[in-house]
Design goal:
Elements lengths: L11 H21 L8 H8 L4 E8 L3 E10 L4 E15 L2 E10 L2 E7 L2 E3 L21 E13 L2 E12 L5 E13 L2 E15 L2 E15 L3 E15 L4 E15 L2 E15 L4 E14 L2 H9 L13 H11 L3 E11 L3 E12 L4 E13 L3 E12 L2 E11 L2 E8 L2 E3 L2 E5 L2 E6 L2 E14 L2 E14 L5 E3 L4 E5 L1 E4 L2 E3 L2 E7 L5 E3 L5 E2 L1 E13 L2 E13 L2 E13 L6 E13 L2 E12 L5 E13 L2 E12 L9 E11 L2 E9 L6 E10 L4 E13 L16 E17 L2 E17 L2 E12 L11 E8 L5 E11 L3 E11 L2 E5 L2 E4 L6 E11 H7 L5 E3 L2 E11 L2 E11 L4 E5 L10 H9 L3 E13 L3 E12 L19 E11 L3 H9 L2 H5 L20
Parallel strand pairs: 4-7, 5-7
Antiparallel strand pairs: 1-2, 2-3, 3-4, 3-5, 5-6, 7-8, 8-9, 9-10, 10-11, 11-12, 12-13, 13-14, 14-15, 15-16, 16-17, 17-18, 18-19, 19-20, 20-21, 21-24, 22-23, 23-25, 24-25, 25-26, 26-27, 26-29, 27-32, 28-31, 29-30, 30-34, 31-34, 32-33, 34-35, 35-36, 36-37, 37-38, 38-39, 39-40, 40-41, 41-42, ...
């Protein structure tokens, strides 16, 4: 059967028509039985059929019989009642003949069961089938207020019929159908009302009248409201064929979540009732269709989606175009419905147009439809254009679970971005679909752009609506990529799904999937410096927005100036401002700058052209033999803008968290040069913090440091290398050194190479006091720090007891475990001032001394080697003016003691050897004469009092270096030595118990 043919409605219509005529048929049966009413045949006839009946004969005549209060069926629930019924007879040679049936107040109840009309007990009155075609009886009928209550699976339907005329030729009447609520599946019709004029003719039955429907709604599918229209129906005389036309208008309607106004349908229908076939064809249309307001509003929220990505400029105009196309849409199409062996529904010649001039058409084919035999079908030429949407054109031919489609999509361009899709191919097989294309994107990225970003796309759509995009690895490539001063060379990378597909969409709308690029390798340049990026695995999970990159290694530069950054884990995701995420386990080094960065962690963000990082890290010396201990910073801030790195942070000592220096770094990637500024506002050393926690170079050199050091440093680097300068100063620093405690150290040191710890010549430091056993004050040392951790002492000077103490020039190596030599020179020491300065009691003396104190420092400590102090020419005097503390000195002891009360010496020398932190061996040698008479016991052959006797003292003393003052007291006040001389001993040199034997 072709599309132009019409088919008949189902057979139930035929039985329904018969039911409407039943009141007349029931009353006319009396005639068909051809028995005189007067003989009360009615009772016998109904009784024979087992049909209970109740009625009252109101009139009985030769031409008219009238029954009233008619009731047939169960008295409690009769199947038919009538207020009255009349039969009008005509007499002929064959006897009486019924020529008219009249009735009023007829009430008939029925049910529709399995497509068949059931009138209860009245079915017993229906004539047996004869096989002859149905024909309306040649009988005049007049009905007043006749009603049929019909129970159907969909709900109750009420019909009312008024009219009169010959059923076979000229019946005229009005039929009203009312259904408060009809339900079928998930669909409900409320308030159906049909008021039709009924006419009969020899050709059949015709109905014409308005149709009203309060609403029609299907759960989840939509519905119509306030439907009004008109329908015309023609039934053939044998009720075998039906045809008609209908026009409907719905004030509002909804399909799924899309609403529209003024839904229209104008069409025709036809049916072959005997064959059970039929069809409907017509035009449908609507105006002002729109997606939900909240959905349209939410579309606008996506204008900023993918900000910072290359596709971002395309999003606002595309979102605006979609939002415009989702409202104020007028549409029309041709509807075709066929029901027979199969059921087919098609929408052809589809045309949708929005107020923004977006237009979608599907023409030149069967359109979109559904067939009980082939399922969903699509056939025709599709075109989408206008309203800011990309132009899409192609053809579909899908039916029976198979077919294909081919489409072309015009490139989309906006704001410097361009997206092009290769021709789209759709293949259908067994109810599933495969869609293939390839996307190529050009677009801005921060302050740069990506060009030729391309990837093939293959989507599989299952019969249940599930979608899987790229179920296997696909190459992701780009021709060029530039951002933040970085330019990457063309690359081709495998993008593989981590699960079943790169992107999955479940039938219920759930989105999942994920992908990874294993072994990512990129190469490029930053300015003129080569760049490589290696990543063990770059992946993302659709269920968790963002990406994860494990084991990232970045190298920038070449040769010795390579900057490196290694990150254990890098995560990120897109938000309204761009890309953001976290980094963990970051470590690296900037070019040849000898600083190692490690243990970095924190947050990063890429917005427009600005890459920023915040977090913490550790800074250490890159030298194989570190010059300073690692420091930490928990407030690092780094930005990369226009190819320039800017970083700040506060460096702290890890254990004490003491702030050491504020750092500011600026680096130009294009020129491979930069600067780091160090600001040390003040490091205070004390019990909580000692210098060895900052640098091992002070270990074993100084200890117990107290005071504050402040200063600043600068590190510069470029293609030529790294330079660094700085200046640090202190107003007062106390410390303990190997040669003794130091108080009030003050001065400034200027570095010509801060990282190498090198200075220009002429650095000065003042020392308020140094006490290696003999306190010296107001000292000044000039020095220079040399490469290789060497110290050049240019000289030192202290005023010392009327003379001076000098530190001779020397070079000390602190990089190697070697001996370090220092030589102190004493010039013009005045013994009288020395005695007065150190407040020696009972002693007086004169003499000017010179000498040297060579010192050696190594792993075993410090020591004096061949130290010598010697009185100048002219000698001096010694006088002990104290009381004798022990009378039992012996004869020679008393003589020596008496001689020391006033002695003039012409030479005196002190030799010093030994460890500074151990025992010093001092040899004291002097000769002289007594200037006062010697008292005591008389000696044989001598006078009682002697003067001008020559004496020679040779004393060896062993004592700690810190007892140097005590040693001086011994050689100036040797009474303790004299007391130790035993009576009766030979006149040996007087010495202490600690001293060695000397001759």
């Amino acid at each position: 059967m072709d599309e132009g043919e019409t088919v008949r409605p189902p057979k139930r219509i035929k039985r329904l028509a018969a039911g409407l005529a039943l009141p007349a048929v029931v009353l006319g049966v009396l005639w068909f039985e051809r028995r005189p009413i007067a003989e009360h045949y009615v009772d016998r006839a109904l009784a024979e059929r087992g049909l209970p009946a109740r009625y009252r004969i109101a009139a009985l005549g030769p031409f008219t019989q009238r029954l009233e209060d008619v009731s047939l069926g169960d008295p409690a629930r009769p199947d038919l009642t009538a207020d009255w019924a009349e039969l009008r007879l005509a007499w002929g040679f064959g006897g009486p003949q019924v020529v008219e049936v009249r009735a009023g107040g007829v009430r008939l109840n029925g049910r529709l069961v399995d497509g068949k009309l059931n009138l209860g007990s009245l079915d017993r009155l229906m004539p047996a089938p004869t096989g002859a075609p149905f024909a309306l009886p040649d009988l005049r009928v007049a009905l007043d207020d006749a009603r049929l209550g019909l129970e159907t699976p969909a709900g109750r339907i009420g019909l009312a019929l008024d009219g009169q005329g010959n059923l076979a030729r000229d019946f005229r009447g009005r039929l009203r159908l009312h259904a408060p609520r009809l339900s079928a599946g998930d669909c409900n019709a409320v308030g159906l009302l049909i008021a039709a004029e009924v006419r009969t003719a020899k050709s059949g039955i015709a109905l014409d009248g308005p149709v009203d429907l309060g609403s029609l709604a299907c759960d989840g599918a939509g519905g119509l409201g306030q439907v009004k229209g008109r329908a015309r129906l023609k039934l053939a005389g044998d009720l075998g064929d039906a045809e008609g036309d209908v026009s409907l208008l719905a004030a509002n309607g909804q399909i799924a979540s899309v609403t529209a106004k003024d839904w229209r349908f104008v069409g025709k229908f036809a049916a072959d009732l005997d064959a059970g076939e039929g069809g409907l064809e017509g035009d449908i249309g609507f105006v002002d269709a729109a997606a939900p307001a909240d959905l349209r509003a939410s579309l606008r929220d996506y204008r900023g989606a993918l900000a910072g990505s290359p596709v971002a400029p395309l999003v606002p105009p595309l979102v605006d175009a979609l939002a415009g196309a989702s409202g104020d849409v007028d549409g029309k199409a041709r509807l075709l419905l066929r029901h027979g062996r199969t059921t087919d529904v098609h929408l052809r010649d589809i045309a949708l147009e929005s107020a923004t001039a977006a237009r979608l058409t599907l023409r030149d084919g069967k359109g979109i439809g559904w067939s009980s035999a082939a399922g969903i079908t699509a056939d025709g030429a599709l075109r989408l254009a206008g309203g800011g949407l990309p132009e899409i054109a192609g053809r579909l031919a899908i039916a029976g679970g198979g077919g294909e489609g081919r489409f072309t999509v015009a490139p989309i361009a906006a704001g410097g971005a361009r997206l092009a899709l290769a021709p789209i191919r759709i293949d259908a097989d067994g109810g599933s679909y495969r869609v293939q294309t390839a996307a190529t994107l050009d677009g801005p990225l921060g302050d740069g752009a990506v060009r030729g970003l391309a990837m093939p796309l293959t989507a599989r759509i299952g019969g249940n609506g599930a979608i899987a995009l790229n179920t296997a690895c696909a190459p992701l490539s780009f021709e060029s990529l530039a951002v933040a001063g970085i330019r990457l060379a063309p690359a081709r990378l495998p993008l593989c799904p981590t699960g079943k597909a790169l992107v999955t969409i479940a039938p219920d709308g759930g989105v999942g999937g994920g992908g990874a690029i294993p072994g990512l390798k990129l190469a490029g340049h930053v300015g003129g410096a080569p760049l490589t990026i290696v990543n063990r695995r770059f992946g993302f999970d659709i269920g968790r927005p963002g990406f994860i990159a494990d084991t990232v290694a970045i190298r920038l530069g070449a040769g010795d100036s390579v900057s490196r950054l290694d990150v254990d884990r890098l995560t990120g995701q897109a938000d309204a401002r761009g890309l953001a995420g976290r980094f963990e386990g970051a470590a690296g080094q900037i070019g040849a700058v000898p600083l190692l960065l490690s243990e970095g962690q924190g947050d990063w963000r890429l917005a427009n052209a600005d890459l920023s990082l915040t977090g913490r890290l550790k800074v250490a010396d890159a030298a194989a033999d570190p010059r300073f201990e690692p420091l930490i910073s928990d407030d690092v801030r780094l930005s990369l803008i226009d190819g320039r790195i800017h970083a700040t942070g506060q460096l702290r000592q890890p254990e004490t968290n003491v702030a050491v220096a504020a750092v500011r770094i600026d680096h130009d990637l294009a020129k491979a040069r930069g600067t780091a500024l160090l600001d040390v506002p003040g490091i205070t050393f004390g019990r909580a913090l000692q210098p060895e926690r900052l640098t091992r170079l002070t270990f074993g050199v100084v200890a117990n440091v107290e005071g504050t050091v402040r200063g600043e440093g600068r590190i510069d680097w470029n293609d030529a290398g790294v330079t660094s300068t700085g200046a640090f100063r202190t107003d007062s620093l106390d410390l303990a050194a190997a040669f003794g405690p130091v108080r009030g150290l003050a001065g400034e040191i200027r570095f010509s190479d801060l990282l190498g710890l090198e200075t220009p010549p002429g650095q000065e430091v003042r020392l308020a006091e140094v006490n290696p056993g003999v306190a010296v004050t107001d000292g000044l040392i000039r020095y220079q720090l040399l490469p290789g951790q060497k110290l050049r002492v240019e000289g030192g000077r202290w005023p010392f007891s009327g003379g001076e103490l000098f530190l001779e020039p020397t070079v000390m190596d602190f990089a190697q475990p070697v001996a370090r030599h220092m030589t102190f020179r004493v010039a013009g020491l005045d013994a009288a001032q020395f005695i007065q300065q150190f407040e020696f009691e009972n002693i007086a003396g004169t003499g000017i001394f010179d000498g040297t104190l060579p010192m050696v420092f190594d792993d075993s400590g410090g020591r004096i080697e061949n130290g010598l102090l010697k009185v100048r020419e002219g000698g001096g005097t010694l006088a002990y003016v104290g009381e004798l503390s022990n009378e039992d000195l012996g004869t020679f002891g008393k003589m020596a003691f008496d001689a020391l009360k006033s002695m003039r010496y012409d030479n005196l020398a002190i030799r010093l050897d030994g460890n500074l932190d151990g025992e010093i061996v001092s040899e004291i040698l002097f000769t002289g004469i007594n200037e006062r008479p010697i008292g005591g016991e008389k000696l044989e052959g001598m006078a009682e009092e002697l003067t001008g006797l020559p004496f020679r003292f040779n004393i060896t003393v062993r004592a700690p270096f810190r007892g140097l003052v005590s040693t001086a007291s011994n050689f100036i006040d040797p009474t303790a030595l004299i007391r130790n001389q035993k009576p009766g001993d030979s006149p040996k040199p007087v010495q202490t118990q600690e001293s060695e034997d000397k001759r």
